[in-house]
Amino acid sequence: MFDLVPFRNRNRRNVVERDDDPFNSLVSGFFDDVMDFAGRSFRADIRESEDEYTIEAEMPGMKKEDISLEINDDYLTISAEHNEENEEKNENYIRRERRIGKYSRSFYLENVEQDNIKAEYNDGILQVHLPKTEKMPVKKRTIDIE
């Protein structure tokens, strides 16, 4: 049903090298927090039951109005845009932060009643319910290893 693309593959050696760099360890904590929202896609879990598929997407800090769902050519696209600015009235501020991020993930839909898709957003979790059009028989076979 879903066409999934794996996340960027980080090898262990690069992670260890980054941790050894003193400059990286000093600055990475700050920039990881600031750039976290702008640099990554949201996480999504996909569950299947007898009657439907369910996508649960983690979108903390988002407002319902910032999220959009669209179906185009059998692809469900979940998009979100987030703007956050911490404003301080003090002119002698040491640190001022802004976060701006746009996210988009697409999922290929197969065996889904597109007219009956429902979505709800509560406590930072978007749930998209995708009812199945028909029950698909489980295909099981054994694959020989050469």
Quick synopsis:
By secondary structure, this protein is α+β, with helices and mostly antiparallel strands. It has a domain at about 45-85 and about 100-135: Immunoglobulin-like. The chain has 2 helices and 7 strands.
Structural overview:
- It is a single chain.
- The chain has helices at residues 12-20, 22-39; strands at 44-48, 52-58, 67-72, 75-85, 98-108, 118-122, 125-131.
- The protein has two helices and seven strands; from the N terminus they run H-H-E-E-E-E-E-E-E.
- The protein has 146 residues and is an alpha+beta fold.
- The protein has a domain at 43-85 and 99-136: Immunoglobulin-like.
- The strands form two sheets. It has a four-stranded antiparallel β-sheet with strand order 1-2-7-6, with no helix packed on it.
- The model is unreliable at 4-17 and 26-39 (pLDDT under 50).
- Keywords: Stress response.
Under CATH, the topology of the domain at 43-85 and 99-136 can be stated as Immunoglobulin-like
Strands ordered across the widest β-sheet:
1-2-7-6
- Would you identify the CATH architecture of the domain at 43-85 and 99-136? Sandwich
The helix-strand sequence is HHEEEEEEE
| Number of helices in the DSSP assignment | 2
Which percent band covers the strand fraction?
A: 35-45%
Instruction: Categorize the overall geometry.
Output: elongated
Query: Any idea of the CATH class of the domain at 43-85 and 99-136?
Result: Mainly Beta
Number of DSSP E strands: 7
Rg computed from alpha carbons, rounded to a whole number of angstroms = 21 Å
Distance between the termini: 29 Å
- What low-confidence regions span 5 or more consecutive residues with pLDDT below 50? 4-17, 26-39
